[in-house]
Amino acid sequence: MVEFVKLLFSVSTKNGSAAEIVTRYMEIVQNSLHRDTRLVEQVGDEVLIVSSSADSILSTAIEFRNNIEPEPFFPAIQAGLHAGMIL
């Protein structure tokens, strides 16, 4: 299973530095990972998370959404789930 999450946001200096915002975002990603899931890649505001378990990846996506919602500088996330081989 693969979860590809894209967070769309613009950084404003009044909201904190870009580095602080990205650091907080990655903390949320890491804290949202469930069993059998791991972060494979980060490109800009996108992360690729893989798992061998559909339940784990779905739980991770839901937890990530729930952890992002209360953050003042992040809008809602977009997530897609895929099952099967990755090319």
Task: Note down, in words, how this protein is organized.
By secondary structure, the protein is an alpha+beta fold. It has one domain: Nucleotide cyclase, GGDEF domain (Alpha-Beta Plaits, 2-Layer Sandwich). Helices cover 34% and strands 26% of the residues. The chain is built from two helices and four strands; from the N terminus they run E-H-E-E-H-E. A four-stranded antiparallel sheet has the order 2-3-1-4, covered by helices on one side. Strand 2 and strand 3 form a beta hairpin. Helix 1 (18-32) packs antiparallel against helix 2. The radius of gyration is 13 Å and the shape is globular. The mean pLDDT is 81.
Given helix and strand content, the structural type is alpha+beta
CATH topology: Alpha-Beta Plaits
Shape descriptor reads: globular
Q: Could you state the order of secondary-structure elements as H and E? A: EHEEHE
The percentage of residues in β strands lies in 25-35%
Instruction: Give the total of beta strands.
Output: 4
* Unreliable spans: none
Spatial arrangement of strands, main beta sheet:
2-3-1-4
Average pLDDT across residues? 81
CATH class: Alpha Beta
Distance between the termini: 13 Å
CATH superfamily: Nucleotide cyclase, GGDEF domain
Number of domains: 1
Proportion of helical residues: 25-40%
What is the count of DSSP helices, taking H or I runs of 4+ residues? 2
User: Rg from C-alpha positions?
Assistant: 13 Å
- CATH A-level architecture: 2-Layer Sandwich
- Major sheet: 4 strands, antiparallel
